[in-house]
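Is it possible to get an amino acid sequence alongside its tokenized fold?
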Amino acid sequence: MKKLAKPPKALSPEAKTWWRKLVRDYAIDDSAGHLLLENALQAFDEMRSAQAILEKEGQVFRDRYGQPRQHPATLVVRDARNLMLRSLRALNLDVLPGAPLGGN
């Protein structure tokens, strides 16, 4: 049995859990696959961080003139989600990190 690659240290615990599951379930064992997966999960962590900010501060804020404006973190969520999905697509994976982990 081939030893599975360990998740990068910089990933969050949630992203590390996804790393282990995806590497195991989809037999990602090449360096290009690991790089794409790392990019996807770094984007996942960025998305989660921005989502936490939005939970606390809301998606809209008032500027100095009292006008409602879109919170900049909404753009981070959008861009990080797009990068994550593009990276997963490049790996030919049909998964969405953030959804509940399956029973495997």
In short: The first strand starts at residue 60 and ends at 62.
